[in-house]
Write a structure and sequence with these properties.
CATH superfamily of the domain at 23-61 and 120-271 and 322-422: Outer membrane efflux proteins (OEP)
Shape: elongated
Radius of gyration: 39 Å
Order of helices and strands: EHHEEHHEHHEEHH
Helix content: 55-70%
Oligomer: single chain
Length: 429
């Protein structure tokens, strides 16, 4: 019995009402505007029509045909000058034909079942594209937030170094520091400006990626919320069980194998006899001087049994058999792949959680250390310019590392949800 898991998606928000539906809003936009999704929807519609076509194999075929002929012949004068007679002829005919296939060696049945599988496959392709779009939109969303924070951190760092340079110039005039100390501060300021340019470039790239993914203009990043939690499986084994049941790549491989089985059955059915029955009724009228009517009804039963087609049918069966074996091997490989990828997703999710906790502690310590070192330096104690620079660099690195860890932790949740086949817009609140 399949195990069912309900994954709740909760946005942990403050009082900003605008932010409450930000993520869902942009995911919905991405789902609406994604061209690959539109193409997959058309593929599904096409598969449905193909299924309808295969169903017609079981229904009777009705044909109505008609013909009307009108002719006039005029004889010219003969050698003696005598006029010859004119001849007029008019006729019409109508035929109604009904044919019903009785048996086709299960070819029609297998063809119909194959079309049903193709429709299921098209639905799975659409679902897989939807999951990937949700993941891409969420990744773009949180990357935008992270890159924005990175730019803000670097701007703040520049402001700190600018104040330090001005302070060091004044202290140099008083003889409290050396020219080397000032040079260190100025060098750090120049490095901070270079880092800012890099951060701004990365932020611009994240905006471009966000717009490409969602087909929406970049919003005010300050309004975007990043506190997102997905309730996921508690153990690796639970994750593996869900992946084996719901992973879309695995389900697609299973469907493709079943389709290969139906293809083999269809080719085998081509060697089987087939039978059909045909009923026809025709009316023929001749509107000449003498009217003749001819009505005809007939019932015909036909049985065909292909014996040999130069070895083509046997080769087709062998080909389909090899193809079935190929998809069976692909399915087995996919099962192994899903096990590996799910384990990796689980490990990434757990490690990103640990990294987040570690960087949070690192950031808290860096803030305390920087505050203390800065106060001691400003009060003229033994702290050197280099120590202040190192402290501020560590603080910047800690802030960036923590923001990145937040992004990675959130994205890892989406990746694991996709891996176990549970990522959908329905779980976004």
């Amino acid at each position: 019995m399949k195990k069912i898991i309900i994954i709740f998606f909760t946005l942990l928000l403050g009082t900003n009402l605008y932010a409450q539906d930000n993520l869902k809003f942009y995911i919905e936009k991405a789902l609406k505007n994604n061209f690959k999704l539109k193409a997959e929807r058309k593929s599904l519609e096409s598969a449905i029509q193909s299924k309808n076509i295969s169903r017609s194999e079981f229904l009777p075929s009705i044909t109505l045909s008609g013909e009307q002929i009108s002719s006039t012949s005029t004889n010219s004068t003969n050698k003696n000058g005598a006029n010859l007679s004119d001849t007029n002829s008019d006729s019409e005919s109508k035929t109604l034909s009904v044919e019903q296939k009785i048996f086709s060696g299960f070819k029609g049945l297998n063809t119909f079942k194959k079309s049903e599988l193709e429709t299921k496959k098209a639905k799975l392709f659409l679902q897989r594209a939807e999951q990937q779009t949700i993941l891409d939109a969420a990744s773009a969303y949180f990357d935008l937030v992270f890159k924005s924070e990175n730019e803000i951190f670097n701007l703040s760092n520049i402001s700190l170094f600018e104040r330090q340079v001005e302070s060091d110039k004044a202290r140099l005039q008083k003889g409290e520091i050396t020219l080397t100390d000032l040079a260190q501060s100025e060098s750090s300021l120049a490095g901070a400006n270079a880092n800012l340019i890099k951060a701004q470039t990365e932020f611009l790239a994240s905006q471009t990626n966000f717009e490409r993914t969602t087909r929406e203009k970049v919003p005010n990043v300050k309004n975007l919320n990043k506190k997102t939690v997905l309730i996921l499986p508690n153990t690796l084994n639970e994750s593996l069980s869900l992946a084996n049941l719901n992973n879309l790549d695995l389900l697609i491989s299973e469907i493709e194998y079943e389709i290969a089985v139906k293809d083999l059955n269809i080719e085998r059915a081509r060697l089987s006899p087939s039978a059909s029955i045909n009923y026809s009724k025709s009316e023929n009228k001749d509107f000449s001087s003498t009217i003749d009517d001819l009505d005809k009804e007939s019932v015909k039963a036909t049985v065909t049994w292909p014996i040999i087609k130069g070895g083509e049918n046997i080769s087709s069966i062998k080909k389909s058999s090899f193809n079935k074996q190929r998809f069976q091997l692909i399915l087995q490989d996919m099962k192994n792949k899903i096990t590996t990828e799910t384990s990796n997703s689980w490990s990434k999710y757990q490690s990103s959680k640990s990294v987040l906790q570690a960087t949070r502690s690192q950031l808290k310590a860096a803030e305390i250390a920087n505050e203390g070192i800065t106060l001691e330096y400003d009060s003229g104690n033994t702290r050197t310019t280099l120590e202040v620079i190192q402290s501020r660099s560590l603080l910047l690195d800690s802030r960036i590392a923590f923001a990145k860890a937040e992004r990675d932790f959130i994205v890892s949740q989406f990746e694991l949800a996709k891996q176990i086949g549970s990522l959908s817009i329905k779980i976004v609140n």
